User: Fold these one by one.
Assistant:
Number 1:
Amino acid sequence: MTYFPEEVVEHIFSFLPSHSDRNTVSLVCKVWFPKLRVLTVKGKPHFADFNLVPPDWGGYAAPWIEAAARGCVGLEELRMKRMVVSDEGLELLARSFPRFKALVLISCEGFSTEGLADIASHCKFLRELDLQENDVEDRGPRWLSCFPDSCTSLVSLNFACIKGEVDSASLERLVAKSPNLRSLRLNRAVSVDTLSKILMHTPNLEDLGTGNLTDEFQTESYLRLTNALEKCKMLKSLSGFWDASPVCVPFIYPLCHQLTGLNLSYTPTLDYSDLTRMISRCVKLQRLWVLDCISDKGLQVVASSCKDLQELRVFPSDFYVAGYSAVTEEGLVAISSGCPKLSSLLYFCHQMTNDALITIAKNCPNFIRFRLCILEPRKPDAMTNQPLDEGFGAIVRECKGLRRLSISGLLTDKVFMYIGKYAKHLEMLSIAFAGDSDDGMMHVLNGCKNLRKLEIRDSPFGDGALLGNVAKYETMRSLWMSSCNVTLKGCEILASKMPMLNVEIMNELDGSSEMEENPGDFSKVEKLYVYRTTAGARGDAPNFVKIL
Amino acid sequence: MSPPLELDYIGLSPPAATAAATGSADDLKGTELRLGLPGSESPDRRVPVAAAATTTLDLLPAKGAKRGFSDEVQPPSPSAAAGKGKKVADEEEEDEKKVAATPQPAAKAQVVGWPPIRSYRKNTMATNQLKSTKEDAEAKPDQGFLYVKVSMDGAPYLRKIDLKTYKNYKDLSTALEKMFSGFSTGKDGLSENRKDGEYVLTYEDKDGDWMLVGDVPWQMFAESCRRLRIMKGSDAIGLGKPVTWS
């Protein structure tokens, strides 16, 4: 076999303009592994976020950390999402990589604050410790005191998801000796007074997640906070607002004009008028996350104030299926007409209409991400009682750059015909309670050339669709189907036709014994997860997962 | 005995949920009608049986999950409550159910993993509600009791008292004296002679600060008190001049 010398290979790579292409080629050769500096690993399927994947399914970080510890000690950054990370894993990580700089954990679980203590203690050059929405067991505040005095390199520290108490003195000391701090996200336990003290040391801060802003504090405390915030001239992004009382709102005003990002989505204590008082002053806002208590009226205020808005997320405050939401299609139409730059949307509402969607599509042709969740499954157009096929059809037709789409409401196979026909750049599609027949799924598989991830739940797609274009799955990262009509037989056929795929099935009711006792091949498969593999079936699958 | 009260973490709709939780057939029928769109399967066919008699299924952990959220939310044990307090609480619960049940739509159904909200968000929003009730005190707004822990320096265990059973500081101090009389309390126990007596009564307020008992009017104290600590007088130097309790 002939080899190209490395210099030649590198020269070839220099012609690859995009990061993603370079990443792809870097996966090809084991020889390049020892030089690995940055590793990003994602574990569980996306629907694990919504409790659709049973615990112990997999996604363990340990084998990755162990392999890296053996093979690429130059590792500097590790980013993991939806993985199970243990304290032992974190300790190994902390001790194995002398140049380690950045740890980013998103939606992970399985570790405690003791694991963080090891990271703090041993990673001398740590620049980034970013913990986003993880489930972390609280074993006390000791970890924050573990950063040695010599560690002055922190640029980004996010511990908002840590549930327990934090030692204020340690926190202040740490911030005081970190002159490069650009991003700091505190947890709920941090008081207003501590926050004020910390902000005196962070003139270069660009992103702040506050601690709690409850109303038990004296006005003096809030005045100190305002003074401290005013010193942060670079501050552009604000989040936290834990337990925020309306009293705190005016104290944030001096900052509003410079904010480009605002996350109020964990603050049910602020109502429509509090929110609009704040947001109407945020004229440079590009990214806004709020709860639906902002209401349609509030969204109209956003639309008239925030002309640069690019990303909007409106989360429900009531999580029931038939729950009440104060936002409807009207709020979204208002946003679309006031904020033409809108490109990324996540919107939970209790009703929608085709007309609204058609208007929105015309107003905002720049959507890259469009995720609409109508709280009640299969809910039709609120005015005409028709399916919402035409509305979503307009979205995919007008938004030629659409890469991610989540659909909801009453939908027939027709919407999939539109998606297959128009959504040529679509990479990720999420479907729930939609469609009539296999044709729906076939439109998507055949039409969406760039599809990478397809996740479907509670939709009437069966073996015909599953097997209708099996080669497609080798061009995709993964397929998820739960509560659909695929059968064991269909999955077995898929597995036998496509040896380069792992076809995992999960039947939740008591694991594998259930499967063998019901020998009927036509028994429906509860959950199906299909993904490419170069290594064959994984060895860490639990009992309830069968890999065909 | 009614099933454990699901603390509705958003506070928007507990009564309908709990009404359904008691297994009222009418409410469930209401659910079916409401969601039974023509040609569609009822989405709650996926409702896991294991989660049993509650409708707040998304709060309860999936089988085997560690996060025993529902374990955290224990209603105050009825048998321990002061008799009067408990009765009021029960009546008020019933009233809440009745009042709120009328304007609410039929009991809200649950579908596993729907709406698609991350568990982290659900759990965090739930703790929002829990946090705003006092951590060391067990109480719900409008309920007839407010339990706070009472510790005494040197005593081997803590006690709990219901602040709502006292009308003023004198009642409180008398009760505490009785409660902790088994332990050495110095010459005058918890009387006003703090300079001479061995112990001083302090409390932790909503901010987490330790304050001397007696400075503010009783009602204000009762509303902000999260726990009580009977401190050794020698530790309490500098807390200020003792004042007479009104």
Number 2:
Amino acid sequence: MGEAKDSGVEERPKWDNKFQYLLTCIGFAVGLGNVWRFPYLCQIYGGGAFLIPYMIALVFEGIPLLYLELAIGQRLRMGSIGVWNSISPLLGGLGIASMLVSFLVGLFYNTILAWVLWYFFHSFQNPLPWSQCPLNDNLTGFNVECVKSTPSNYFWYRETLNITPDIETNGSLNWWMVVCLASAWSILYICFIKGISSIGKAMYVTATFPYLVLTIFLIRALTLPGAADGLLYLFTPDWEVLKNPQVWLDAATQIFFSLSVAFGGLIAFSSYNAEKNNCERDAVLVGVINSATSIYASIPIFSILGFKANTAYNSCMKENILALTNHFEFSDQNITVDNYDHWVEYLNRTSSGELTRVDLKPCDLQEFLDQSASGTGLAFIVFTEAVVEMPGSQIWAILFFIMLFSLGLSSMFGQIEGVLTPINDLKVVPKWIPHELVTGVVCLISFLTALIFTQGSGNYWVEVFNSYVGSVPLLIIAFFELTGVAYGRGMKTFSEDIYFMTGKRPNIFWKACWMVISPLMLLVVLVAYVVIQAQKHPSYPTWNPAYDLFPKTEDKPYPDWVFAIIILLCVLPVISIPLVAIYRLICSRIKKSGGHVDLNPNSNGGFEVET
Amino acid sequence: MLWKVLLLLGLSSAWAQKLCSPGASDGYKVRLSINSALGDQAYVWNENEMFLFRATLAFAMRTYSDGQEYDVANVVVCDETPRVSFWFVVTSPLDASLLVDKRRVEEAVRKSRSRINSAFLLTDDTLEFIGIPPTLEAPVAPDTPPWLIAFGVVMGGVGAGIVVLLVSSVVQKIRKKRDGEEETGGKTENEAASDAIYNMSFSDDEPVTQM
């Protein structure tokens, strides 16, 4: 931790070793999205074929961006605000935008961790609470809402979220959620207390533990019946999807968000590095490991989903068999899953009239496999249902939720670091205030603001934040980052920076990416994203027990005031980019009449660049 | 003489059969799924098992109904199928032609359901009385919800950790300040690579050379 020496020069905190730094970057990049977003995209976009646009996006968009952020952070040795002020005073707004986006994303991301904690605390019971329906009030039957949907749906929507029918109904603060949220922020705080020395140590656990759990799940999942169906379904390539532009768009977006660029966290982490460090190798390593983790995680996820589909198919068949056996009074277990088709054929031939009287459900394994889910639906509904069917469900549930918590916590470190480092670098806080207090105040403010996510409509607000804060502003920031460095700082100066740090200049591939390919790809993704979003009035799925087709979710359009908030969330973080640029331009014009103010990035009087 | 006895037996069994028929208003249908429940350990359903069922039901009527001495002969069974399902009715011990009311039979079966189940090594799902739903078990509600215990353990640890770390850093700062005050005149080891040059001859109330 930086100690204030008598002379007044503060030494910048440092990583204990290179491995700690790499582990922190990997931990930041590898997050919940690797586990619950990538497998879903793989599934809906034709399995193995999706890997092609994904890899292309990684090579031409993801890794160049990563390399750029790590390089400027390491060279200029400041957080996001300081770095962009150094590169060009006109770009100072970029740092503020990064900081704001990090703060807003951190709010809802930690709420998801609070949900994970809630499920984790509930995994210590036998039987697991989401495995059976609770009884209704007069103990004559099961709770109606639970019976109509499923026990895991009920546990998620009613007992965890206590969700309201739409976003306008606020509901009350759910005290249990407030408690879990406080726990999540406290755990985050204790990891942050000593700055990067405590984060680095915490990372040894939080960044490596998910891999351990994924391996355990992999071994367990591959031995479950039906795992092969799931894996086949996941990886069977459907080359037709490559013609659909939506696939390319989603691949580019997924790579972008998966690598956690444009948050300012990576810049902050690499600013604590030694000056002469090979950041090119770091960037390639982090990018490749992130994608490899996504692919590695999808194997156990899909084995387990295949197992779940298999179980659901077997239950469906068993219900049909029971119906047949009861109606025709055959001996018990005469009809099995294997000879079911023979029996139905035989019965069709001999007594088809009777057969029509039996209520047989259509059981299709493909249909069960098609029930895909991503995001919180995958983790808290689909996966928990699957875990209940596995022997020793408590252990698997506990492992799964600890893994999710570690994944999310290591990503949260980057978010909070993206907020704290600029605060430290701006020196807005007087020096006598200890670092622990600043961290505590930031955590407290975030906790209080995130209380909106603990009320009845909280899940809908998380979706709003997730879809709109964590998407368009990041794309805009990244685009300006690329163009700012490539054209603002100049490729020549930047090449010199890299030569200074790594000992060799970037080759033509990197230059081409930074100057042309990556900004172009980002621009295309941004424009396509905005166009697709703007085409329809956005709607959201709601859990409404009074709905006719319950348990299907009802799609409702966002009310106007929510729509206004959405626009605000998209615009507010990035508004600082033009505002600061205009302000600096005006200042320089005013001062030009009096004195000489340089807009030259190299003569920035506010910050000292350590050499 | 013999033919009279045979005639009587035949008549009485025919009488009993008339009392019991599928869809009888005072009877219930029973369905057993022995293979599903027991798999390899399944026993074969035969006359002896049927005798056990009738005896168990007679026991249930004796214990939980009006206390009359029901006998195996009072439980009449008919329409047995290979499914292992059959209908039964219960006749009154006082008059073999009278059927016991449906509701009394239901009450007796409900109250002794677990005994009947365990006599056949079956459960509520695999030994079904069609028309008598099993009573649901009241959930066991522990005094403290288990999740609060897990939460308490984790948060206790985290809270203790926060306090310990904060106190240790405060103690460190106080100790450093004390060390710094003790050496007002000399150079401290911390000034290793600093840009400030500490000039001893100007040591006064400003130990820090401003940059």
Number 3:
Amino acid sequence: MEQPVGAHWHRVRLNTRMISAQSFGDSGKMKEYHYTGPVEQRFSPYAFNGGTVLAVAGEDFAIVASDTRLSEGYSIHSRDSPKCYKLTDTTVIGCSGFHGDCLTLTKIIDARLKMYKHSNNKMMTSGAIAAMLSTILYGRRFFPYYVYNIIGGLDEEGKGAVYSFDPVGSYQRDTYKAGGSASAMLQPLLDNQIGFKNMEGVQHVPLSKDKAVQLVKDVFISAAERDVYTGDALRICVITKEGIDEQTMPLRKD
Amino acid sequence: MALQDLCNFQDVFLDSVTTECSSVHFGKKTGCDFMQGSPFSNSSSLFNFYIPPVPLPFPISHGTTTLAFLFQGGVLAAADTRSSCAGQVACPASLKIRPVHSHMVSTTSGTSADCALWVRILSRELRLYQLRHGRRLSISGAAKLLSHMLHPFKGTKLCVAAILCGWDGGEEDGRHDNGGTKTELGGCTETAKKIAKSLDTSLQKTQSSSPTLGGQQHLTREKIRFSGPSLFYVCSDGTRLQGALFSVGSGSPYAYSILDQDVKWELTLDEATSIARQAVYRATHRDAYSGNHVDIFHISSKGWTRRSREDLKEEYYREKERRERGMRRDVTYEKAQCGD
């Protein structure tokens, strides 16, 4: 996923543009610090709150992990704002992007889960939640939820399943996926370690739960080193048929 | 089916159940009316159509190579599997050819979310048509339906370019009555053969300037029950074209060059598959937004079948080997020449 950049304009003085995160509507590069002439300030309903989410599916388990930093521009709003939300006993969703939309989206999903439970007398399966989320996101095709979602859980057969989404609802079942601000750094590492890509003559060993948890921890430590929006702490949710087990591990705070 | 469950669920919100109304909403002027039956009508439909002039802070996924053509064995559809998003590969293993029903697939190009959802809506509508009328809607009808559904969104950022590939069955109550078991020329009616033979003219057709061809099609269809392979290109800007060969996407110019030289009606299935694979491979070689693997689907009178996904890396090495063998052969030939 493209490195999302903050979509809100700093109040500028003297009509010069500070070196700040630019709206993606521009060239995508950072503009130099020079006088550009009068700049129109516009209210943007979006903001970028950072954060990275990762999910891995194993033979009989799934892991959803996220960092817990909530930032905006140069500030950190909170060091304890995890981005994994428990939906059912077998499904966890990780949402990163604009925190306001994350909160609303999870509220809507919770409400729809309850309604399904009441009218169908059973819990929604991971696949069904993924399909439903796709239509919820597409319903706002022309004013999207600025959220990168990844659902991790167990499917009906008890195997691990990961579903990754784009902000407008296109989704796909995967074995592993990283989303959020450090996704471009983490995804190639996961491709190599879990997907055995770009290596020749290597034995494809299936991933065990403990190895997967260790890998996730290592991967987030690396992400915190290089991505400013990722850090503070790591929240890991391990989903097995016994239930959901949550662990927290500290990361770099700078 | 998940979509059926989703449809039933919508009844909780809607006051009027749309099953009694006309089955397909052709020619509805206002988009809002149509949205009653669609999955995203839980909030007030009017508000969904207020498009605030806000620049999006993120890019949406795009870019592809897809192709489809008719031949004596039915329809062959092929696509790459790379889904890119402003310079990053969002997904190296995406599915661009989606089955709509047992005898139709749709290759999708454009924004992945738009394509995925609209093909899903199309399959729902076709299933409802089948349940209400006892027969499948023809590919031409399905293309018209999709085109009319996309029309209210003309001018917006919606981007869907789909090729609907399928086999129009002559079946009533499950029987195929036009030589459905055979896959050679006997399985198709005259109109299908005419389309296939006119490969050149169909490629030159411009947007909606084919009323004469369409008109003829329509008349002949009234008389005989059309049965055979069929190919339609539908685009969110309003284009709806019938043809025998289409390629869509950023890599399509490269694919067209391979297809134009090799595609003939008389191809066998293996030849057609290798041509399709070669065309996608060439496109992925030159186009940055296409790559990774190739998916090939074959639709015959019995329905669609899918080949297992092939990594184009293997194709690259096979070609390299072929070229080296060719060069070695040339060198030995020259040596033999000089030796005389």
Number 4:
Amino acid sequence: MDWGALHTILGGVNKHSTSIGKIWLTVLFIFRIMILVVAAEKVWGDEQDDFVCNTLQPGCRNVCYDHFFPISHIRLWALQLIFVSTPALLVAMHVAYRRHEKKRQFRKGDQKCDFKDIEEIRKQRFRIEGSLWWTYTGSIFFRLIFEAVFMYAFYFMYDGFRMPRLMKCNAWPCPNTVDCFVSRPTEKTVFTIFMIAVSSICILLNVAELCYLLTKFFLRRSKKTGNSKQQPNHENKEETKQNEMNELISDSCQNTVIGFSS
Amino acid sequence: MSWAFLRDLLSGVNKYSTGIGRIWVAVVFMFRLLVYVAAAENIWKHEHDEFECNIKQPGCENVCFDHFFPVSHIRLWALQLIMVSTPSLLVVFHVAYRKNREKQHNQKLYKNPGKIDGGLLCTYLISLILKTGLEIVFLVLFYKLYNGFKIPRLVKCAIKPCPNTVDCYISKPTEKMIFLYFLVATSCLCIVLNLAELSYLVFKYSIKYYLKRHVKKQQ
């Protein structure tokens, strides 16, 4: 189980996404997950070993490291990526549920179902409308929230996005204020800014997708109300005709019944 | 042999699960297995090397580490994941047994071998009870072994060959605690999902059973 498995799961969702959704997925995999696995993990690989404090006091280094890095950047990013990918699973589950329903209809031999065989159902691409629209929009909304929360948590925990070279620490058992030096601060700053920039791009893509879906929804609605406004006159005429027919039928029924009884 | 094996096993189970069962599989994959492999494993990677005691006495660090961490958190986590996923195999085996029986007798004995009814329902319920039980057992084990879900920065150790009471410092205690809480939260979520699935199945099939009886009585 690793990021490759996540790629397989989310790849299935790709078929039913909008174009912006597909771009988002590509950015996620190439510029975030791949960079994390191939480069960032190595930069942070030796972070505690090479965190050096100007003291021989045993334990001081451990305590200072723990004080300045309650949760490592690399782990925060991994959690962020996992949480941000999870809403797409909702869409995958909804699509699977719809497919399951269609298969059931097909097996029952329902005439509404117009597929020739099960393979067609499996390969079918569902349009984003109806309840699937709500699931999809909900998933984008949650993605946005998770991205924003993690970016804020990052900013809050590390006082900005810069990695300082030197940190002064006086947590017990360090005897006095002690200088501690972070390993590879510049490289870490570069990667942090890169990951934050890509997160921002992903947020923008999600906002764009949300706007696109909402616009489509309102356009479709206005088309429907436009069509239904033209129809009511027709419907009224038909209804009155039907009412007259019904009255005629009920009158003739009553006559026959009365005739029969007498 | 790696976590991919467990992943493939669970994907097989997914076919015969209810909707809540599929949510459970998704939670186990995304929030437990993936977090374990992608993040948690690396935090505990050098825990022994980074465990430092304020003493030069050889052997003291080893002995103190062994005293405070009889089984490492990360190994308990891995065991928990494996044990909790295994009861689902009972369902897979039962379905395979049904299909085998059909083949042997060369007739259609079941309308659908994968449908949860009759004996398969009992197996499914047993697997749910086992899963929940094992989750609770591991949570209690974590709690008892480590005095709650806390990881202190400093532990005091006075075991031979340490000459007196010695200060020992655990590495990355805050990060370990955050991930430990995450583990507990996802375990509790899985327990809730299992109990929900259990109640749903019991409720659904008792209603079916009573309706059948009612119809028979009327006839």
